[in-house]
Amino acid sequence: MDSSSPGAPAPVGEAGDAGPDVEVVLRGEQLRVGTERVPVERVRFSKRVVTTTRTVEVPVRVEQLVVTHEPVTDGDAGTLAEPGGARGEEELVIVLHEEVPRVSLDVVPVEEVRVRVRTVAGEQVVTADLRRETVGLDVDGDVTVVAGTD
Asked: Is this structure's pTM higher than 0.70?
């Protein structure tokens, strides 16, 4: 039977016999840390129209008809008499005016809003458990183990 199959340890010689060395490769995990850019959230930027009510007092003017009655004296009677008699049929038309508020709206720029994305650098602590292989030695009988350093 061949004992040199892959992965099997080589046989060790008898006590006092300098046999071949047995080598075992130990492996361990290494921690590699990097970053990856992933989407976190989506933000929508939009404009909305908000309506507010504004009340303003506007000064207005109104024309009023003022009738003044004055008594006629004897001296004024001849100058005020109208031809055709005292019962003249003449009509006087006066147009009165008033001011009314007029409202007009103009759209004008009131504010400029700028949106940009800013990258902020920081640090985040990462913790990981690393595994590694170790060698265990089971000794049967009276064997002296000497740790060697090469």
From this structure: no
